[in-house]
C-alpha cells in the first residue's frame, strides 16, 4: 500500500499524480517540412518539449491561482500542507509529511477503500449466518438465530400464517373488548413498533404533529394474500374474541366505512376535534399514550391532518365501542393480513428456494440496531477508538492553527468565534451509540415469527430511547457508507463500516488509513464552518470569495 500511496508520492510540485515529464501529450505543431534529418529532428523535439513544459507550468499556475471554490472540498492543498504538517506531526508520529499525503489522496482518489470495506462486511455477515463466528456479541448470536429460524420455517405456509396471527395478537395486546386507550395503544404499536399499516398514522415532527389518513381496505392485500391467508387471519381473530363472524360479516362492515377522500390537502386539526373522534378521551391520557411512542410529544404544538373529514369519520366509527366486537374483529383481521403479506412478501412461498433466502435477508436487514452492535463488536476496539480520537484531535488542532483559515475569520474580527466553534467539535464513534441497558433479545434457531417481532420491538425500543436522550440515529446497517457524516453543526459520526479499512489486527501506532480519515474529517469540519449561522457579513464574504 505504501508503495502506491507513499507520503512522498506527489509531495513535490505536482499532486496530480504525474510529473512534468509525463504531463500532457506532446503538442502537434504545424511545421514546414524540414530538411536535414538528424539535427533538424533533434532541434524540433527539443522545441516541442520546451513548449509543452511551458504550457504545463502555465496551466498548473493558473489552476492554483484560479482554483474552484472549496466550499465542500477538503480544506488543504499542496503548497499549504507544510503549515498543517507542522501542527499535526507532533501529535501523530511517526508518519512523515502527513498532510501532504492527506492532500495527495484527497486530490487523487477520494477517501475510503470501498471494495475492502464491502468484502469485510460480507465476510462478517456470512460468518454470522453460518454460525462460524459470532464475534462474542449477543447481537450477532441473535442475528444467527433469526436467519436460521427464517430459512427453516418461513416457507411453511400454514404454520407461518397461524403463528403470525397468534403472535401479533399477543404482541399488540388484543382482548375481547378494548377501550379507547387500549385501541390507541394498539394502533400505535401496530404502526410504530411493528411497522404495519393502520387506518391512520401519527408522526411527531417535534414542532408539529402530522396525522394522515391511511385508506386501508382488505382489497389492498389480494396481490399478496390469497383466500387461505384471509381465512386464517379471520379464524384466529374469531378465536381470540370468542366470536363466530363470517367473511360476509367482515365485508358488510367494511362497506360502512367512508370512501376514499381524494382531498389530500393539509388542514390544521384542533386537539378538541381529535379528542372527540377518539371517544372524548381525556387530554392528559392522550398525551401520556402518545409519549410512550414519541418521547418529546407535546399537545401544545400544532397538529395537521390530511383528508381531514375522512380521517375523523374513520376514527369515530372504529373508536365507537358500541360497534365492538365486529369493529374490533375488522381492525385486528386487517392488521394481521398486513403482517402476513409483509412477512411472506411473495403470494406463493411454500418451498425452500433461492427466493426464500432473499426474503429472509430482506427481513434481516430491518434489524439495524442488531447489525450496528455486531459491527461494533467485530470492527472496533478501545485501541482503535483511541487512535481515531487522536486523529480527530490532531485534525481539529490543525484547523485551529491553520493560518489561511484564521485570516478568513479575522475578516469579520471573529477568530475567537472560530476557536469556540472548533473547540466544541466532537467525534461520535459507533460504540457511543450502543445502549447497553436495552437488553438484546434472545432469538433461538426456532420460532421465526416470534423472533421477527422481537427484533422489530428491540429496534423500536432502542430508537425511542435515543430519541428520549437526544441521540442522533444515523443510517446504520442499511448504508454501506464508508466515510464520516456530519450529525449536526459540531458533531461528526464515524459509521462502523469506516473501521473496516483501518488496519485490522495491526499493531501500528497510527491507523493504516489515518490520512484518508483525517481528510474526511477536515472536509466535514470545513463544511460545518461554512454552514455556521452566526458569522458576520464580512466573514461570510471572506468565505464566499475564498479560492
Automatic annotation (TrEMBL):
SUPFAM superfamilies for this protein: Metalloproteases ('zincins'), catalytic domain (SSF55486)
Biased composition (Polar residues): 1-19
Signal sequence segment: none
Sorted UniProt keywords: Membrane, Transmembrane, Transmembrane helix
Coiled-coil intervals, chain numbering: none
One GO molecular-function entry: metalloendopeptidase activity
Transmembrane segments: 37-59
Source taxon at top rank: Eukaryota
UniProt region (Disordered), positions on chain: 1-21
Record-level GO BP terms: proteolysis
InterPro entries found in the cross-reference section: MetalloPept_cat_dom_sf (IPR024079), Peptidase_M13 (IPR000718), Peptidase_M13_dom_2 (IPR042089)
The name this protein goes by in its record: Uncharacterized protein
Taxonomic source organism: Amblyomma americanum
Amino acid at each position: 500500500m505504501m508503495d502506491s500511496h507513499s507520503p512522498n508520492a506527489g509531495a513535490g510540485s505536482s499532486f496530480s499524480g504525474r510529473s512534468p515529464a509525463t504531463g500532457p501529450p506532446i503538442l502537434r505543431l504545424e511545421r514546414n517540412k524540414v530538411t536535414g534529418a538528424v539535427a533538424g529532428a533533434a532541434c524540433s523535439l527539443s522545441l516541442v518539449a520546451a513548449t509543452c513544459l511551458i504550457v504545463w507550468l502555465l496551466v498548473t499556475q493558473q489552476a492554483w491561482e484560479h482554483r474552484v471554490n472549496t466550499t465542500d472540498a477538503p480544506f488543504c492543498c499542496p503548497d499549504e500542507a507544510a503549515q498543517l504538517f507542522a501542527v499535526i506531526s507532533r501529535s501523530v508520529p511517526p508518519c512523515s509529511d502527513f498532510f501532504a499525503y492527506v492532500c495527495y489522496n484527497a486530490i487523487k482518489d477520494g477517501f475510503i477503500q470501498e471494495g475492502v470495506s464491502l468484502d469485510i462486511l460480507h465476510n462478517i455477515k456470512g460468518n454470522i449466518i453460518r454460525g462460524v463466528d459470532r464475534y462474542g456479541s449477543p447481537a450477532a448470536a441473535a442475528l444467527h438465530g433469526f436467519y436460521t429460524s427464517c430459512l427453516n420455517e418461513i416457507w411453511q405456509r400454514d404454520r407461518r400464517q397461524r403463528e403470525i396471527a397468534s403472535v401479533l395478537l399477543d404482541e399488540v395486546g388484543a382482548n375481547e373488548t378494548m377501550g379507547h386507550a387500549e385501541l390507541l395503544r394498539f394502533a400505535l404499536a401496530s404502526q410504530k413498533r411493528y411497522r404495519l399499516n393502520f387506518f391512520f398514522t401519527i408522526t411527531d415532527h417535534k414542532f408539529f404533529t402530522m396525522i394522515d389518513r391511511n385508506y386501508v381496505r382488505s382489497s389492498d392485500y389480494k396481490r399478496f394474500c390469497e383466500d387461505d391467508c384471509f381465512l386464517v387471519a379471520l379464524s384466529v381473530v374469531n378465536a381470540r374474541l370468542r366470536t363466530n363472524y363470517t367473511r360476509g360479516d367482515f365485508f358488510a362492515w367494511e362497506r360502512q366505512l367512508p370512501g376514499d377522500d381524494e382531498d389530500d390537502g393539509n388542514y390544521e386539526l384542533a386537539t378538541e376535534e381529535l379528542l372527540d373522534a377518539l371517544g372524548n378521551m381525556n387530554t392528559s391520557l392522550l398525551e401520556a399514550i402518545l409519549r410512550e411512542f414519541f418521547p418529546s410529544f407535546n399537545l401544545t404544538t400544532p397538529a395537521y391532518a390530511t383528508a381531514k373529514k375522512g380521517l375523523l369519520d374513520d376514527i369515530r366509527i372504529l373508536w365507537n365501542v358500541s360497534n365492538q366486537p365486529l369493529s374490533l374483529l375488522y381492525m385486528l383481521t386487517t392488521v394481521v393480513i398486513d403482517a402476513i403479506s409483509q412477512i411472506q412478501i411473495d403470494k406463493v412461498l411454500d418451498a425452500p428456494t433461492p427466493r426464500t433466502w432473499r426474503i429472509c435477508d430482506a427481513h434481516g436487514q430491518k434489524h439495524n440496531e442488531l447489525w450496528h452492535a455486531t459491527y461494533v463488536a467485530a470492527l472496533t476496539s478501545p485501541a482503535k477508538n483511541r487512535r481515531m480520537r487522536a486523529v480527530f484531535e490532531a485534525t481539529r488542532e490543525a484547523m485551529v492553527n491553520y493560518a489561511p483559515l484564521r485570516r478568513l475569520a479575522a475578516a469579520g474580527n471573529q477568530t475567537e468565534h472560530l476557536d469556540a466553534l472548533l473547540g466544541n467539535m466532537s467525534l461520535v464513534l459507533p460504540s457511543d451509540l450502543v445502549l447497553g441497558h436495552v437488553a438484546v433479545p434472545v432469538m433461538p434457531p426456532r420460532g421465526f415469527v416470534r423472533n421477527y417481532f422481537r427484533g422489530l420491538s428491540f429496534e423500536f425500543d432502542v430508537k425511542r430511547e435515543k430519541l428520549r436522550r437526544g441521540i442522533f440515529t444515523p443510517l446504520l446497517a442499511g448504508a454501506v457508507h464508508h466515510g464520516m457524516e456530519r450529525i449536526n453543526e459540531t458533531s461528526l459520526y464515524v459509521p462502523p463500516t469506516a473501521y473496516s479499512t483501518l488496519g485490522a489486527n495491526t499493531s501500528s501506532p497510527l491507523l493504516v488509513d489515518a490520512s484518508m480519515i483525517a481528510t474526511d474529517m477536515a472536509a466535514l469540519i470545513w463544511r460545518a464552518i461554512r454552514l455556521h449561522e452566526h458569522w458576520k457579513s464580512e466573514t461570510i464574504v471572506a468565505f464566499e470569495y475564498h479560492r
